[in-house]
Amino acid sequence: MAVVLSTALVASVPSVAYAQSNDLSSESSSDFFYELGAEALSQWSHIPTVSSDLNELFKTFHAHTHWQGFPIWNLYGNPTPYPTSQAQSFDRPELLRREPDERFPVERLFISSPAMGRVVQVQVRYPQDRSKPAPMLTILDGVTAPRQSGWLREGNILGAMANEHVTVVMPTEATGSNYTDWSADDPFLGRMKWETFLIHELPQVLEDPATGMNFDGTRFIGGLSMGGSAAVRLANLYPDRFAGVFSVSGCYSSVNTSGREFFNFITRSVGGSPDLTWGRGVTEQRRRNDTVANPSGLKDMRVYLFTSDGAVTAQDREFYRQYGVSELFGGIVLEKMVNRCTRELDDSMRAHGMTHQRVDYQIGGIHDWPYYKAQLPVAWAHVAQGKYTYS
């Protein structure tokens, strides 16, 4: 989607511009065309109707195509290293081993998951003083959710949480999963039972005194994009489990048009089938996971949401020079979608009598790590209320 549409925008630049670039070096020519495309995309991103136009486009595809969604190809995914044909049988979730991470100053835990039939790797950052009981923050990654958490690679979580007395838990290898229990196994992505793992299996292991976490009984959950969407959904479904939740640039309705397409995009973009997630069309399972329809589980916990408006800034244009106009286009579209999604949830919470949530609507900015990174300390400070900061 990003390549086709952004290429069309670049192609709309008058051909005379190409003629004028013939004498440029290859490097300067590439930069020249990036500037042309970035300028066209920037102007488009500032049109007030873009979000509603995209929503109508997605609605058309949902209603009138056999795949019931926008046709996204595999942009980021690889076949699962855990095919269902090699699924293992475990009697219970168990800590099988632990070792220092090879790249970051965190520990890597290997935990058996009976639900997924495999060993799940979890990265853990411990507080400075492990002798004192600490709360636990489970923080979820975006679409690729690789073996090294994006929060460590690009989110500066070690710096942001350096003076926070909290155990930070980062599940890995959840590519395209939406951190939910899928209705069926995916032949490309494998078996996805992340709700079961995060809510039932993982706590059995981490909160067992024998694991040595020194847990104080207070749980928080948060994330970005795919992970932020899931954090809010899980907090809403299991309100007795969490004291606070935050999400940066997420979607919260699995039924409403932009939210539904957002979740479809996540799965398709890594080679999976959205029909295997919550079923084809608007199913009961999909309705169960629609936080916007019923956000009542969020009423007694601290809630922080963030979105920008998807309008390109000068900083965005410079940042995306290294990636190109296709990625810039994708960042615009995704943030336009999550901006709409965030407003839907905020409006629904208010309609249900909730005004305790903090929702930051940033003017300018698209869907990428510079914003997630900046929001992490803000989000944590809000949900934690400063209770766990070292003096």
- What would you call the shape? globular
Regarding quaternary structure, what we see is single chain
Write the CATH architecture name. Answer: 3-Layer(aba) Sandwich
Largest sheet: 9 strands, mixed
CATH homologous superfamily classification: Alpha/Beta hydrolase fold, catalytic domain
CATH class: Alpha Beta
Average pLDDT, rounded to a whole number, is 93
How many beta strands in the DSSP annotation? 9
As a percent range, the share of helical residues equals 25-40%
Tally of structural domains: 1
Helices and strands, in order, run as HHHHEEEEHHEHEHEHHEHHEH
Helix/strand/pairing category: alpha/beta
Helices, by number, come to 13
**Main sheet: strand order:** 1-2-3-5-4-6-7-8-9
Keywords: Hydrolase, Signal
GO molecular function: hydrolase activity
Signal peptide: 1-19
Protein name: S-formylglutathione hydrolase FrmB
Feature tags:
alpha/beta, Rossmann fold, 391 residues, 13 helices, disordered N terminus, 15% strand, nine-stranded mixed β-sheet, 38% helix
